[in-house]
Amino acid sequence: MLREATTRRWQNRAKSTVFHVLTLAVLVVILYPAAWMVMSSFKPGNEIIGSVSLIPESFSFDNYLKALQGIGGVSFWTFVVNSLILALASVIGIVLSCSITAYAFARIRFRGSRLFFLCMIATMLLPFHVVIIPQYIVFNQLDMINTYWPLLLGKFLAADAFFVFLMIQFIRGLPRDLDEAARIDGAGHVRTFGYVILPLMKPALVTSSIFAFIWSWNDFFGPLLYLKDPGMYTMPLALRLYVDQTSTSDYGAQMAMAILALLPVVVFFLAFQRYLVSGVATEGLKG
Asked: For the CA atoms of 61, 67, 73, 76, what is the dihedral angle to 10 degrees?
C-alpha cells in the first residue's frame, strides 16, 4: 500500500510538472511577439530588421520622441484625439441604441418581432466584406466620405447585432416580476426601462462598452476606407504612415507608436474588467 501511494504521488507530480512546463512553453510563444515589440521600441531602426537578439544592445528613447512628434505634419495628439472621439462616440451610440433595441425585443410583444429578431441574428452571419461596396456607395452618394459619420452612424442605429443580442440575453435573465410591479404602479415601457431595467443592466452595458471601445480603437479597415485627410487619421492609420515601400521606413518609431497606442486600451480594460466577471455572474439571475 505504501509503495502504491508513493508511486501514485510521483505520477501526480510528474503530470503536474509536465503540465506546467507545457503551459509555460505556450505562454512564452504567446508573449514573445509582445515582448519583441516592446524591446524593439528601444532599438535603433537598423537593429530591428534582421536582428535575432531580443534584448537591445543599448536602450534608447529616441523612437518614443519621434513618435510623440507626429508624422506627415500631423501631431501625435491629433491621432489620439481622433481615436478617442471615435471610440467614445461608439460606446455612447452602442449603449443608447442597443439597450433600447434589446429591451424592445426582450420585453415588448409586437407583430413581426420574431421575424425582425431572426433578421438581426442573420446579420451576424453575414461577412463584413460582403457589404463594403454597397455601404461605400451609399455613404459616397450621401457625401459622407472623409467624415466620421460612416464609422458612427451604425452605432447609433443599433446596427451591431452582437451587442443587441448580448443585452437581450441579459434582460431575459431578469425577473419579469419587476416589470409587473412597475406596471402596477402605473409605469409604461419608457419608465420601466429607464428606472427598472436600465440600472440592472450595468454589467451588460459596461461589458458592451469595453468591447466597443477596444474594437473601435483598434479598427483599421473602416478608417482606411472612409478617411482621406491625414488630420482625421486614427492611431492604427498613423502606424501605417511609418512604413513606406518606396522610401525609408522607420520601424523603431512604428514600434514605439504601437506601444503608445496599446496603453489606452490596456488602461480601459483594467479599469472595467471586474464588470466582465460580474456580467457573467448575473447572467443567470432568475426570479
From this structure: -130
Mean pLDDT score, 198-212: 89
Q: Which residues, 6 or more positions from 187, have their beta carbon under 8 angstroms from its beta carbon?
A: 195, 196
Helix (H) or strand (E) holding 90: helix 76-107
Range with the poorest average pLDDT among 95-109, 212-226, 231-245: 231-245
pTM for the whole structure? 0.84
* Chain centroid, CA 203 distance in Å: 16
Q: 104 Cβ partners below 8 Å, 6+ apart?
A: 110, 113
Question: CB neighbours (10 Å) of residue 72?
Answer: 10
Domain 73-281 has CATH 3.40.50.300: no
CATH 1.10.3720.10 intervals, the chain: 73-281
159 exposed, middle or buried (CB, 10 Å; 0-12, 13-18, 19+)?
middle
